[in-house]
Design goal:
56% of the residues lie in helices and 11% in strands. It is built from 19 helices and ten strands. Strand 3 (87-92) and strand 4 form a beta hairpin.
Length: 505
């Protein structure tokens, strides 16, 4: 017995060395070759998966083994939660499953090896060896992605500078076919890295030209409008509702208008973050229903002229406009604006007071806030700095709606208000919403003015939100609704101001 034990151990060691040599040889063919060979080494019924932080299968052998990832959600989540290199043992039916992390940073994957329960220590040792070999490929892939990201960043900047021809010559394989959509994605650090690599793989799998890069703490994706990469991104994030992933999507655009698409995606992303929804399309934003009724040239002149007193006095970093935008999106709440911008509250107050002085307007007036917000969105969407100007405007009087023929403005307001009017014949709900909007969404002040309990007010607002089918937490939705309410009221009383007739013939 004592003579045979060393012999058995030696044979086992030789088997392991031979298996590692076969794995090393197979690994020269990439991760596909490595996973295939490992599945073979595990014996009949051996299955191998590589799973990223999104629990998306990167490699699977045999291919049908990918379906088993759903049965491993709990151990995968536990291993990712630990945040360090490690391993777990689980089971699928009668099989033993070894889960082993590969790598140490955002490009990490988990190697999953399913084997018969009696596979023994040799199978575990071979799996560990395969994990070590996989690190080499992970590191090589990371270096490649870093180089590609630098290239894609350069292409992105060329497109933002409207250098489409130069961008096309710079991008290997060419730019995405037109029309394109731009997606901007916000996600926590580890998830963000995994999602970026996931998008790289999708674009490569479907042979779709795509720009995939990182800008500050966001992922930027630009693909053809109907590309599978964009569709599968939407499918993937719909499964990630609990991971704080937010996506803003532009409307389809030609590449010559890439900057506008980039700004649209940013605007949609800010809305998604404010509302708390996973995906927001620019075209779905309520304010766009109004803005698209007015010729773009007229919109730009109105917005640039309204904001001119601020832009002329602003610094190169546009500190005043940036603060005003954040303050409006935070519904005038200093503490929230301070947190959003990472600035002291007194700095926010000082800048807002200065803006009010430059505009000679009352920033406590909701109408003024709505006009300024919409003007900022128009300027942002234009993606340019050489704005045309018109005759000076009064921020307290010159409303965007007056750029429409008065019959169009009345029709637009009626279409916005119809669901609320149909469900609220006595007008109590409309009065509640109007008062709440005029008081900048302050529940206590609104309840006191209406003489109702805060709980009653909250229920009415929830009902209005359900009827209108858009969230009232986003300033763009509030802006459209407030303008529609006021226009609808003026139409009912036939008391439009003279400036409302400027575009009516």
């Amino acid at each position: 017995m004592t003579d045979r034990a060393p012999s058995t151990e030696l044979a086992s060691l030789r088997n392991r060395v031979a298996a590692v040599q076969r794995l090393s040889s197979a690994a020269s063919g990439g991760m596909e070759g490595l996973t295939r060979q490992l599945a073979h080494e595990l014996g009949p019924g051996g299955r191998v998966l590589l799973v990223d932080r999104l629990n998306a299968v990167v490699r699977a052998h045999p291919r049908e083994a990918a379906a088993q990832v759903t049965a491993l959600t709990e151990p995968l989540t536990e291993l990712w939660r630990r945040g360090t290199a490690g391993s777990l043992v689980s089971r699928i039916g009668d099989d033993t499953v070894l889960l082993q992390t590969v790598g140490e940073n955002e490009a990490d994957v988990i190697l999953v090896a399913a084997m018969p329960a009696d596979a023994g220590a040799d199978a575990v040792a071979v799996t560990n060896a395969a994990a070590s070999l996989a690190v080499i490929h992970i590191n090589a892939a990371r270096r490649l992605h870093e180089a590609e990201e630098r290239l894609h960043n350069a292409v992105l900047q060329l497109l933002l500078d409207e250098e489409v021809d130069k961008a096309s010559r710079t991008m290997p394989g060419g730019l995405p076919a037109e029309p394109v959509r731009v997606y901007r994605v916000s996600a926590p650090g580890p998830v963000r890295g995994a999602l970026r690599h996931h998008l790289w793989r999708l674009a490569s799998r479907f042979h779709e030209p795509a720009i995939v890069t990182r800008v500050d703490d966001e992922i930027v994706l630009c693909v053809r409008d109907d590309a599978a990469t964009g569709r599968l991104l939407r499918d993937r994030i719909s499964e990630m509702r609990d991971q704080n992933v937010r996506v803003g999507k532009s409307d389809p655009m030609p590449l010559e208008e890439f900057r506008a698409a980039y700004e649209e995606a940013d605007h949609a992303l800010r809305a998604a973050c404010a509302i708390g929804t996973t995906l927001m399309s620019f075209g779905e934003l309520a304010e766009e229903r109004l803005l698209r009724l007015i010729p773009h040239g007229e919109l730009l002149v109105w917005a640039a002229t309204l904001l001119r007193p601020v832009t002329d006095a602003d610094d190169a970093e546009q500190s005043l406009l940036r603060t005003l935008r954040a303050w409006l999106e935070c519904h005038g709440r200093i503490s929230q604006t301070s947190a959003a911008l990472g600035m002291a509250p007194q700095t926010i107050r000082r800048r807002i007071v200065r803006v009010a002085g430059l505009l000679q307007g009352d920033l406590d007036d909701e109408c003024v806030r709505v006009r300024l917000y919409l003007a900022l969105q128009i300027i942002d969407r234009a993606g340019r700095t050489d704005h045309p100007y018109g005759d000076p405007l009064d921020v307290g009087k010159d409303c965007l709606v007056w750029l429409l023929d008065i019959r169009e403005s009345v029709s637009w307001a009626a279409s916005v208000m119809k669901p609320l009017r149909d469900a609220d014949p006595d007008g109590r709900l409309r009065q509640t919403v109007r008062t709440w909007l005029a008081l900048h969404g302050e529940l206590s002040e609104t309840a006191a003015q209406l003489g109702i309990h805060r709980n009653t007010l909250s229920k009415r607002l929830a009902r209005a939100e359900a009827i209108l089918d858009f969230p009232l937490s986003w300033i763009g939705n509030r802006a459209q609704l407030y303008l529609a309410l006021l226009t609808d009221d003026l139409a009912a009383k036939d008391s439009f101001p003279p400036e409302a007739y400027a575009h009516t013939f």
